[in-house]
Design goal:
elongated; two-stranded parallel sheet; 140 residues; Rossmann fold; two-stranded antiparallel sheet
């Protein structure tokens, strides 16, 4: 399926009214800078473009809970920052839970951060609390 077809399918799947489907697709293509990929099969997208498409699908509609697993993995630094802004702008009225290996990403996006090692919770708190408590590093 193309990028457009993926977005169209998930618009219908998520219950977006038919009258709003085209506007939703076009706004997501623009927001995630995927306009040039509109008719490209998803399998032909780069890793970063695939992440953007996955994120557009996840944030589409009015889901109150969104789970994101390493949403900026495979993106260049500029695309990562742009994606952080999109995620941050999408947080109102939602609970977004995300996993990441990037502490700067967690610090920018999260109200609360939990560090997990080998399936065990090591510490949790606000980014400021963790910085004050552990300074520049926490050894796992």
């Amino acid at each position: 399926m193309t990028t457009y077809e993926n977005l169209y399918f998930f618009c219908l799947f998520k219950g977006i009214p038919t009258k709003q489907v085209e506007d939703t697709i076009n706004s997501n293509l623009k927001k995630f800078t995927l306009e040039t990929c509109r008719n490209v099969p998803a399998a032909g997208l780069s890793g970063g473009q695939k992440r953007k498409l996955q994120l557009a699908i996840a944030l589409m509609g009015n889901s109150q809970l969104v789970l994101l697993d390493e949403p900026t993995s495979g993106m260049d630094p500029t695309a990562r920052r742009e994606t952080w802004k999109i995620i941050k702008d999408s947080m109102k009225g939602r609970l977004i839970i995300l996993t990441t290996h990037y502490m700067d990403e967690a610090e920018y996006l999260a109200d609360r951060v939990a560090l997990i090692s080998q399936g065990e919770l090591k510490c949790a708190g606000s980014p400021l609390f963790l910085k004050n408590k552990f300074g520049t590093g926490y050894i796992l």
